[in-house]
Amino acid sequence: xxxxxIPKPTGAEEVRAAVIEVAGRHFAKVGxxxxxRDIAAEARVNLGLxxxxxxxxDDLLRAVLESRSQSGLQIVESTADPSEAMSEIxxxxxxxGLSVRTMAWLLLSDEDRDKFPVQFPAIEELKRxxxxxxxxxxxxxxxxxxxxxxxxxxxxxxxxxxPEDKSDIDERLALLIGRLVSQPTAPESSxxxxxxx
Length: 197
What we know:
Helices cover 66% and strands 0% of the residues. The protein has 197 residues and is mainly alpha-helical.
């Protein structure tokens, strides 16, 4: 949709939401080289409004990362079963992988990472629900989620699949990731060994 066809945001909340949405795309594409002027133009706001309602570029990047982290938490909080929550996080992340790509840019750049502390409230909530015994499974699930978000298209091609096959592969992986973090069942107790008579 052309910027001219999008209504100009009015009020602090609309301006902030519009700028964060547009900035998320720009940061994911070019990292911290994103231009505030380009972001303002696409969001149809005055550059001064970004400084007024959000701050400088570093402040905007932090706002984008915070917005994405809260989206993941909302999924977890609205889904009772951790397995289903993880599957939904995977689906949402590959549908809109901007935050993962932005974090990849930050990790690969020379930027001071302490300037952009990334919070993981969804992970913290899943850790709380699943317990310490499931941390490795959870790490695996998120590693697969992040890796597939960035390299999924290349892997589909590398394995000789057609691009149109990706949606089916995505769904199979979503279910697989959900099973990775299924709450463990208590192991059946073994009968006591019989002593020698």
